[in-house]
Design brief:
alpha+beta, 7-stranded antiparallel beta sheet, 6-stranded mixed beta sheet, 24 helices, 26 strands
Length: 625
C-alpha cells in the first residue's frame, strides 16, 4: 500500500472498517501509511470535538438535543479507541516528524543523506522512521510519592460556636401516643444522657442535630426532631435550665462539624505480636496502621498492586517500576487474586513490624459480605494465625469518622456507593451502587486531556489522569486554566499537557451529575441519593437529608459538597445538609481506629479463630452487611 498516493477518502475507508479488519490493517500497513492514518484520525477527532462543544453550548442555552450530544460523545470515544490502537503499535506523528510533500514522496524532515532522501517512500519510512519514545521505561516513583502522600487539610476556620454542654440525670418521659391532658400517672422514669448530638434514654437514642427544643411549663420540655417526632420530658424544676441549655447546644448545626474526628499522624513502628492491625483494602489503594488508642491517619498508604517477578514478589510502588512491569504481569486489583492478597497482607505486616500470629485485625472492604470477606477471614485466621478479625463495610466506618451513627454515606472512588445507615445498621433497601460512574469520570477526563494533545494510554501513564483530577479539577465553574508541573515527575515524553484548560477542569464533575456526557445510561449522583432517600421509611427521610456525608478520593473535588447541596435542594426543597470532613479521603481507616475503641461493638462483630474453626458459616453471620 503506497502512502504517497492515498487521499482522505481512502484513509477514511481504512478507518471505517470492522474492529478485526482495522486491527489487521494497523499491523500490516507500512509505517508511512500508519502515520497518515493517525493524522487523519486526529483531524476527525478535532472536527468531532468542535461539533460536541457546539451541541453542548446549545444545550446549556436551552436549545439542541441530548441525543445528538450522546451520539457525538460515542463517536469521539470510538475515534479515541482507534487512535489509541495506532499508538500501541508504537507510532506517533509528532515523534516521527514525517510529512507528505507535493511530489508524491514521503521523507523524514531531516534525511540523513541525499541518497536516502531519493529512495522510494516506503523504503525510506519503513527503514528510518523512529518509533515514538513511550513512557514504557518511565519510573513513576516521583508521581506515586505525590499521589500517596499522607496528609489531611486543616478544617476551615469558622466563627466560634457556643460550647456543647453535656448533661446526665434522671428525667421522666411521656410515652408515645399520650397527650398532655392524660399525662398523670403515665410518666416513665429514665436515666438520660445528652452528649455528642445524641440524647440517650437508657436503651433508646434520639438524634438532636437540627431539632428544636422548647419549654412547655411545669418542668416539661418538648424536643421536635427533624424526622417529625416529638419527645416530651419532665425534670426537676431546678434542673430545667440545665437541660434546656444542654439540649439546645447539642442540637445546633455546628455540632456535626465539631464532631469531625481530627486524626493524628502515626509513623510505622515495630509492634511485635498481640497488636491490632487496621487494614483498609480499596480497589486502587491500601491503607494500614497499628491501633494505639486514638484515631490516627494510616502509617502506610500504597497502591494495591502486586507483581510476581522471577526474582520475587513486589508490592506497591516497587511493583510499578519499569523492571517489574517488563518482567511480570502486574496484578490489580489484588482483591480478586487470592495469592496477590496474601502477598499484600504479608508486605503490610512486615513493613509495620507486626507478627500476625496472635494479633487482631480490623479490616474494611467496600462490601463486607461476599466471597472476598470469607477468603480474607480464612487467610487471616486459618493461614496466618490471627487471634480475631473484624471485617466491616467502608461506608459504616466512614460514618464513625464523622462522629455519627445515622446518615447517608456517599463514597466516591473507583465506584460510587450511596449507603443509608441508621444506628450503625445499613438499610439495605436504600443502598444504591454505580460501578460505572467512577470509570466514566476518568474516561471523560482522559478524553479531554487527549484533546489537549495528552497521550495517557498505559497502566502507569493513566496515573497522570488521577494527578490531574486531584490537583486541577473542580466541581464549580473555574474560569481559568491550571498549570501542571510535570518536571519533577521525570517523564521521558510530555504525556500530559503542561496546562489544563478550564473545560477540562470542570469536565469530571459534570459527568457525576450527568453521566450521559460520558455515554453512560446511569442516573447522576443527586438522583442516586434521591432514590436512596425515597427507599427508606418516611419517618427517617428528614433525618437522612440532614446527614449526608462524603467519603473517598473523588469527594476531594473543591466545591463538590456545595454543588451537591444545590442539586439536592432542587429535588428536596425542604432542605438538605452535605458534610465534607477534611479527613474524608481516609475516612474508612479513621473510622476503623474509632471502631477499635468501642469494646462492646468490637465484641459483637469480631470473629475469633476458635469460632472460625468450629463453624465458618455461623461465624460469617457476625460480619455486618
Amino acid at each position: 500500500m503506497d502512502a504517497s498516493t492515498m487521499d482522505s477518502t481512502e484513509l477514511s475507508s481504512l478507518l471505517h472498517t470492522s474492529d478485526a479488519e482495522f486491527e489487521r490493517t494497523v499491523q500490516q500497513v507500512p509505517a508511512s501509511t500508519l502515520i497518515l492514518l493517525v493524522q487523519h484520525l486526529q483531524k476527525e477527532m478535532l472536527a468531532e470535538q468542535a461539533r460536541f462543544d457546539s451541541i453542548f453550548a446549545q444545550l446549556q442555552g436551552g436549545e439542541g438535543r441530548r441525543e445528538e450530544l450522546v451520539a457525538s460523545h460515542t463517536r469521539l470515544s470510538w475515534l479515541f479507541q482507534r487512535h489509541k490502537r495506532c499508538f500501541l503499535r508504537g507510532v506517533g506523528p509528532h515523534e516521527q516528524q514525517v510529512r507528505a510533500d507535493t511530489d508524491q514522496s514521503s521523507v523524514l524532515s531531516s534525511p540523513p543523506d541525499k541518497a536516502a532522501a531519493q529512495q522510494k517512500p516506503d523504503e525510506v519510512t519503513d527503514e528510518l522512521v523512529q518509533f515514538r519514545v513511550t513512557n514504557r521505561e518511565w519510573d513513576p516513583s516521583a508521581l506515586l510519592r505525590v499521589l500517596y502522600a499522607i496528609e489531611v487539610d486543616a478544617p476551615p476556620s469558622e466563627p466560634a460556636s457556643p460550647p456543647q454542654v453535656t448533661m446526665e440525670g434522671w428525667v421522666e418521659r411521656l410515652p408515645p401516643g399520650k397527650g398532655l391532658s392524660t399525662l398523670l400517672k403515665t410518666w416513665k422514669r429514665r436515666m438520660a444522657r445528652c452528649e455528642g448530638g445524641i440524647l440517650q434514654l437508657e436503651n433508646e437514642r434520639f438524634p438532636l442535630l437540627g431539632a428544636s427544643v422548647e419549654e412547655l411549663g411545669e418542668g416539661m420540655l418538648g424536643i421536635h426532631g427533624v424526622s417529625g417526632h416529638t419527645l416530651v420530658l419532665r425534670c426537676a424544676p431546678g434542673d430545667l435550665p440545665l437541660w434546656l441549655l444542654a439540649l439546645r447546644s447539642q442540637s445546633q448545626e455546628t455540632t456535626v462539624k465539631e464532631r469531625f474526628v481530627v486524626p493524628l499522624p502515626r509513623p510505622p513502628a515495630a509492634s511485635g505480636s498481640g497488636a491490632i492491625l487496621l487494614l483498609d483494602l480499596g480497589a486502587c489503594s491500601t491503607r494500614a496502621g497499628v491501633y494505639d488508642g486514638s484515631p490516627s491517619l494510616p502509617s502506610l498508604f500504597l497502591p494495591s498492586v502486586v507483581a510476581c517477578t522471577p526474582d520475587g514478589v513486589l508490592v506497591g510502588v516497587d511493583a510499578l517500576r519499569p523492571s517489574a512491569r517488563s518482567a511480570s504481569a502486574v496484578l490489580q486489583p489484588v482483591r480478586n487474586q487470592l495469592d496477590a492478597l496474601r502477598h499484600l497482607v504479608t508486605h503490610v505486616s512486615d513493613r509495620l513490624g507486626i507478627r500476625l500470629a496472635g494479633s487482631c485485625v480490623v479490616a474494611s472492604l467496600p462490601q463486607s459480605r461476599g466471597p472476598l470477606a470469607k477468603h480474607l477471614l480464612d487467610l487471616l485466621l486459618s493461614e496466618m494465625g490471627c487471634r480475631a478479625v473484624a471485617v466491616l463495610p467502608q461506608s459504616l466506618l466512614a460514618l464513625l469518622a464523622y462522629g455519627s451513627e445515622t446518615g447517608i454515606v456517599v463514597s466516591l472512588g473507583e465506584r460510587l456507593d450511596v449507603v443509608p445507615i441508621k444506628d450503625l445498621v445499613v438499610l439495605r433497601a436504600g443502598v444504591r451502587r454505580s460501578p460505572l460512574l467512577g470509570p466514566a469520570l476518568h474516561e471523560r477526563l482522559n478524553a479531554l486531556l487527549t484533546q489537549q494533545k495528552g497521550r495517557l494510554f498505559g497502566r502507569v501513564e493513566t496515573l497522570l489522569v488521577r494527578l490531574v483530577l486531584e490537583k486541577c479539577c473542580r466541581a464549580d465553574e473555574p474560569a481559568d486554566g491550571c498549570p501542571l508541573d510535570l518536571a519533577p515527575l521525570q517523564l521521558h515524553d510530555a504525556a500530559a499537557p503542561p496546562w489544563v484548560a478550564p473545560e477540562t477542569r470542570r469536565g469530571p464533575a459534570h459527568v457525576l451529575f450527568d453521566p450521559s456526557l460520558a455515554g453512560k445510561d446511569e442516573p447522576g449522583l443527586h438522583k442516586l441519593i434521591q432514590s436512596s432517600v425515597l427507599s427508606v421509611d418516611v419517618d427517617l427521610r428528614k433525618e437522612m437529608l440532614q446527614h449526608i456525608f462524603l467519603a473517598g478520593g473523588v469527594s476531594l473535588l473543591p466545591g463538590l459538597d456545595e454543588r451537591l447541596a444545590r442539586e439536592l435542594a432542587k429535588l428536596f426543597p425542604g432542605g438538605t445538609r452535605v458534610h465534607a470532613s477534611p479527613g474524608r479521603y481516609h475516612a474508612a481507616f479513621i473510622g476503623a481506629s474509632i471502631f477499635a475503641q468501642r469494646r462492646a461493638l468490637v465484641d459483637s462483630v469480631t470473629v475469633t479463630q476458635e469460632e472460625w474453626k468450629v463453624d465458618p458459616g455461623r461465624a460469617m453471620a457476625k460480619v455486618p452487611e
